[in-house]
Amino acid sequence: MAELEVDIVAPDGKIWSGTAQQLSAPAADGEIGIRVGHTPLLSVLRRGELRVARAGGAPLRWIVEGGFLSVDADQVTVVVDSVEQVSGGAPAPAAH
């Protein structure tokens, strides 16, 4: 099954990198969902929750403070101004 390749980065380094079935992000004009095969996209992010749904794993969640999201050929790059892990969620493996 095809998956998204996701990289989430902040000014101080990489937050998380891995594969996902779906990603949801707080776009400037509303919530956006990304799945395999999504058309190329560049979107500004606002404050809100970023969620990554992984195959066979607990979803990962962060609160982000702005940034942008890029999608091209099932590669998703999320660049955030600042980020905070949502408490109670599964810990995100650091990929430094």
What are its keywords?
single chain, 96 residues, mainly beta, ATP Synthase, domain 1, 5-stranded mixed β-sheet, 5-stranded antiparallel β-sheet, 0% helix, globular, disordered C terminus, ATPsynth_dsu/esu_N, ATP synthase epsilon chain, transport
Walk me through this protein's architecture.
This protein is mainly β and about 100 residues long. It has one domain: F0F1 ATP synthase delta/epsilon subunit, N-terminal (ATP Synthase, domain 1), CATH 2.60.15.10. The protein has no helices and ten strands. The strands form two sheets. Strands 2-1-9-8-5 form a five-stranded mixed beta sheet, with no helix packed on it. Strands 4-3-6-7-10 form a five-stranded antiparallel beta sheet, with no helix packed on it. β6 and β7 form a beta hairpin. The termini are far apart. The C terminus is likely disordered.
